[in-house]
Amino acid sequence: MMNWSEFFAMNGYGFYVWGSYGVALLVFIVEILMVRHRRVLALRQLRLLNESGDAQ
Amino acid sequence: MRLAINWFKYSAPSTFYGLAGKLIPFFAWPAAILFAVGLYIGFFVAPTDAVQSEAYRIMFIHVPASILSMFIYLIMAGYAALGLIFKTRLSSMMASALAPTGALFAFISLWTGALWGKPMWGAWWVWDARLTSELILLFLYLGFIALQASIEDPRRADRASALLAIVGSVNVPIIYYSVQWWNTLHQGSTIKFSGTSMHVAMQQSMFTILVACWLYVIAISLARVRSIILERESNTQWVKELAEAK
B77 and chain A: CB distance < 8 Å anywhere? Predict the structure, then answer.
């Protein structure tokens, strides 16, 4: 099994291979965070609506 | 006679909201596991390529992302059309839920393609038929999202963006057949129904990651559509009584 430095070097193509997988991973993580955030905002909005509803 | 009959119990946003919530983990966790397995096979089992040495390993994310960017668009256009024809709000919501994920996959396809093209073709970008039509696909996604965001009334927004999505779907076959119709720098399809010349481990890795991407898309769009339901149905009784909205 080749050692880790060879692995990351990808025979000289490391920049391209890890540049591809790194950005893809980043995109997935950012998308997951954005979807979670959108849910938080939606629920916060609903709580406000409910509170103003109760206040009347 | 307004065709507003309830086709199936789960086509109503209220029941779908609960169902989608339960389904997400069943798609999300297998997706994560298959990603790990696919990447392991791709990097530790698949051999070095005779011609491209290690650079070809970009294929394991580039090809699934490209395949999905096209499929998601067709599914999005399908939901948009359903919403347009049958006035089913949930269909239009599903179209809006898929658009951002489709756009991201189109971006990943273009990005990984460029990082693969630079060492292999010597260029980040060429105005090649396949690359250009994929770029148009990305713009169609962004156009759909922008149109949705720019129109206040959800109904009108759904109608306008549905028309864009449907008209834009002609672009997907163009992407697919671009490598055959035009003499493109981008290669033809290596995987045919008659089989493939690819090494078995390479096939396994790519197919595993493709399935992982599919499961990811389902999980993330179900999660996003739940938020869209909460946003659009905020004045309904069932949303008000939701535990998480208290």
Answer: no
How much is the pLDDT for B192? 76
Mutate to test the interface with A, among B62, B112, B218 (most CBs of A within 10 A): B112
Question: How many interchain CB pairs under 8 A, A with B?
Answer: 93
Q: A31 with B105: CB under 8 angstroms? A: no
R_g (Cα) of chain B, nearest Å: 20
Check residue A1 and give its pLDDT: 52
Q: Which helix H or strand E contains B195, and what residues bound it?
A: strand B195-196
Contact (CB<8Å) B43/A31 = no
How close is the nearest chain A Cα to the Cα of B2, in Å?
A: 30
In this complex, the residue of B57, B231, B245 whose CB is nearest that of residue A47 is B245
Query: Directed axis angle between helix B129-150 and helix B59-86, to 10°?
Result: 40
For range B175-188, the mean pLDDT: 87
Q: Give me the long-range contacts of B78-81 (CB less than 8 A, separation at least 24).
A: B80/B158, B80/B161, B80/B162, B80/B165, B80/B166, B81/B162, B81/B165, B81/B166
Token readout for A26 is 């980043």
Residue B6: Cβ within 10 Å count: 10
d(Cα B147, Cα B240) in Å, to the nearest integer? 29
Better-scored residue on pLDDT, B189 or A21: A21
